[in-house]
Known about the structure:
Helices cover 61% and strands 5% of the residues. The protein has 44 helices and ten strands. The strands form two sheets. Strands 1, 2, 3, 4 and 5 form a five-stranded mixed beta sheet that branches. Helix 14 links the parallel strand 2 and strand 3. The longest helix is centred in the middle third of the chain and has 32 residues.
Amino acid sequence: MTAPGRRSSTFTRLLRHGFTDPSAAERLLDGAELAPVRTDPVLLDALGATADPDLALLGLVRLVEAQDGHTAQRELLDTLIASKPLRDRLLGVLGASAALADHLARHPRDWQALVMYEPRDLHPGVEEFERGLAEADDPAALRVAYRRCLLSIAARDVCGTTDIAQTAAELADLATATLRAALEIARAAAPDDGALCRLAVVAMGKCGGHELNYVSDVDVIFVGEPADGADEGKAIQAATRLASHMMRICSESTVEGTIWPVDANLRPEGRNGPLVRTLSSHLAYYQRWAKTWEFQALLKARPVAGDLALGEEYVATLAPLVWHAAERENFVPDVQKMRRRVVENIPVAEVDRELKLGPGGLRDVEFAVQLLQLVHGRADTSLRSGTTLDALKALAAGGYVGRADAVQLDAAYRFLRTMEHRIQLYRLRRTHLVPEGEADLRRIGRSLGLRTDPVTELHREWKRHASVVRRLHEKLFYRPLLDAVAQLAPGEARLSPDAARERLVALGYADPAAALRHLEALASGVTRKAAIQRTLLPVLLGWFADSADPDAGLLNFRKVSDALGKTPWYLRLLRDEGAAAENLARVLSAGRLAPDLLMRAPEAVALLGDGAAGGLEARSRAHLEQEILAAVGRAPGGEQAVTAARGVRRRELFRTAAADIVASYGTEETPAVADQGALVDRVGAAISDLTAATLSGTLRAVVRDGWGETLPTRFAVIGMGRFGGHELNYGSDADVLFVHEPREGVDEQEASRAANAVVSEMRRLLQLPSSDPPLLIDADLRPEGKSGPLVRTLNSYAAYYRRWSLGWESQALLRAEPVAGDEDLGRRFIDLIDPLRYPADGLGDDAVREIRRLKARMESERMPRGADPTLHTKLGRGGLSDVEWTVQLLQLRHGHTEPALRTTRTRAALAAACAAGLLPQEEAGILDEAWVLATRVRNAVMLVRGRAGDTFPSDGRELAAVGRYLGYESGHVGDLLEGYRRTTRRARAVVDELFYGG
C-alpha cells in the first residue's frame, strides 16, 4: 500500500511515459479489462509512444470491453502483446483519433484489419481498396467498410510506414474505390437508368490530384453520353439520377455517420448548371464561357469511376484548352485577382489559426505551383501533374523554380499537410483551423515527433514553415527570371529565354524582352550591388506585377538604381527596412508623376524608409516655411534662392504623392486607407501648405534682391479658388490676388511700381526652365479679370468692390484666404470682403437667378467638345462644379447668420450647412461622396499620366492604373466607370433640387 501523501510507483511511471492524467490512467489499468496484461512492460512503453497516451489507453479499454466474450478479449490482448506491428498500429490510431476509437468500439472485430503486415499491405492501391469494399451492398455497409479501410491508412500514417504524400494518395485511392462502389449501388437500384447511359465520374481538386485529406469534400464532374441507340435527352436524365443517387450514398448521414460530401460545384455554371452534361456540351462551355480559375481547376481532372474511357476522352478533349489558358486575353487580370489571398474572408479571430487559406498557408503553395504549370505546361509536358509535390519537383527539375526554393517549399508543404491530417484525424471532421486547447496541441505535437515540449515546439515549427512559404511564395515566380539572366553555377537548370518571356507575359509585363534586359542589367555580375539586387528583385517584381503597369515599375527601378546604385545607403535602405522596398515598388509602378519627381533628385527615395513613422508624414506649413526661408537666406541671389525653394517643393510633392499612393494601394502589412475623404483632405492640405510656403520664400527672395529687407509697400498674397480652400490638386495652378499698401511717406506710384515688379519677378522665377516643376500663378480672378491691373492697393479694392463688384466676384471671394506676405494687410483685406461674401440680407431673388444663369451658361459653353458629360470631373454631371456652386450658394445665402459656414473649404462648408439644417444629412453625404470621388479621379489622372486632366484616360493601361489607385481590382475598369456615373448621377439629382429648384 502506498503511504499517504506519496505517489505510487505506477503513478510516477505513467507521468514519465507521457500521461497527463495518471490517476485516471491508473484506475483504467487496474480495471478487470486489462488484468492479463497490466504488468507487461511493453504495453506501457507502447502507450507512451503514442500521440496521446491517455486517449490510447481509454480507447483500448473500450475496445476490450466491446469484444464478444472472454475468449475474444484474450485473443485481442494476447495478439497485442505478441505482435509489435499490431501494437504500434492499433495503439497509434487509438492515441491519435477518438473518431476511429468510436468506430472500433462499434465494430470490435475490425481491429483484425491491422494484424496483417504483408508487403502488399504497406502500399495498397485502388484494387486493394475495392476488395475491401466489395461486400458492401448498401450505404450503411459501405460506411462501415470505408472506415475499416480508413483505419488501415491511419495506422500506417501514424506509425510512419507511409509519408504524407503516400497517405494522401492512399486516401484518394480509397475515395476512388468508394465512388465506384457507390455508383454500383446506385446502378443496382436503377438498372434501367444504367442501361440507358454512359456515365463518367471525373475527380477534381485534391481527389483528382491524388492528394486527398482525411476529411474533405470530394470534388467531381460528371460526363454523360447515351448508350448505343438511346435518346440523348433520356440518357442524360438517367445519368443525372444515377449521379444524384451516388452523391447521396456518400454524403447522407446514417447510423454509421457519413463518408464525405461529394461536391459537383466545379462543373460548368456551378450549382446553377446541369449536374450531368455531354462531352460536346462541356467543350462548348469551356470554349466560350469558362474563366481562368476553371482551367486551373482542370489541372487536377482525373477519371475515377463509371465509364473510364469516356472520362479519359473528356480529359484529352479539354487538355488543349487548359494548356493554352495562359494565352487568353483576360489571363493576366484573372491571375492578378487570384493571386491576392482571400485572407479578408477569414474571420479575424481565425486568420492566425488557418493552415490552408492564411498567409503562408497551403493555398499559397498550391496556387503558385498551379500558376507556373499553366504558364509553362503548354511547352513542357513534364509539368502536367495534378499532384502538388510531383509538379513542384518537375518545376525544379526544369529550372522553372530554383532547386533550393523547391526543397524548402516541399518540406514546408509536407509539414503543413501532415499537421492538417493530424488535426482532422482526431474527430474525422473537415477543418483547417489549428485548435487552441493545450491538450489538442500537445497531441498534434507528439504525433509529429515533438516530445520535449510539444506545444512550444509545434508552434515554433509551424510558424517557421509558414514563414518559409510566405517568403518563397512570391520569389517562386521571379527568382528563376533572375537566374535566367545572371551567371549560375555550371549544370544548374534555368529558364530558357522563351520560358522567361512566357512567364513575364503571364505576370502582366507587356514588353518581356525589355524587362529581361532590365533584369540582366540589374542582377548580372559578382558585385555586392548585383548580389543585393538579386535578393531584392524577386519580391519587387511581385509588387510591380500587382500594379497596372509592371513594365514602368521595373524600368523606373532600373533608372533609380542606376542613379543611386553606388550610394551605400540606397541598397541598405531597401534591404534592411521592410517598408522602403515595398513603398518604392508601389510608387514606381503607379504612374508617371511620382517617378518623374524622384528621378530629378533620386536621393528622395530615403523618404520611403520610415513609413507612417515619419518619412511620408506631411510636414506642417510652419516647418516648410522655416526650411524654405532658411534656404532662401543662404542663397547669394534671387534666382538661386527660388531654385532652392523649388527644390524643396519638388521633394515635398514627391513625399505627398508617395504617401498618397502607398495609402491608396495599401501594403502587405497595412491595408489601404478606407476613408477616401481623409486621403483627399491630406493631399489638398499638403499641396496648399507647400504652395503657400513656396510663395513666401519666393516673395522674400524677390524683395531682398531688389530692395533689401523692406519693400516700399506692404504686400500680401491672397489665395483664391482651390488654393484658398486648401484643396489644391497635383496639377493645380495657384489662383491668387495681390494687394499692397504704400508705407508711410512713400509715393503711391513708387509703391505701385514696386508691387508690380515683385509680382512680375515672382511669376518669372517660379516658371524658369528647370528640373523642378514650375509653379504657375494665375491672377485672373482679380477685379476686371485679365483687363485689370495685376496688383491693387487695399483702397482700390475697396472702391472697386463698393461700386462695380459683380455677383460672381462675391462668389469667388468665398475661397479667399491670405497665404503669404504682410499678415496684417491680409487680415484687413479679409475684413474688407466679408460683407460681400456673407451679405447681411443674404441673396435676393435676382442675384440667385443670376448665379443659376451663369452656372447653366458655363455648363453649356465650357464643356470641351466631344467630352462625355457623365465622366467630366469638373464640369460634368454631379462633378466638382455642381457640388461647389451648390455649397457656395448656401454660403452666400446663409453665411451671415451661420458663422460655421464662413469657411473656404468645400467639405467643411457642406458639413456646416448640414449641421445648420440647410440640407438633409443623406443629401449632404451624397454631395460629399461625389466631390471626394471627382477630386480623387483628378489626383489619379495626374499621378498616372504626369499631366493634369479632368476626364478619365482613354488608354487602357492608364485607365486601369486610375482604377487601382481608386481601389478597383485589375479587370474591373467597367465597374470603375459605372461606379463614378452612379455616384455623380445621384449627386446631380441633389444639385437639381438644391441649386436649381431651392
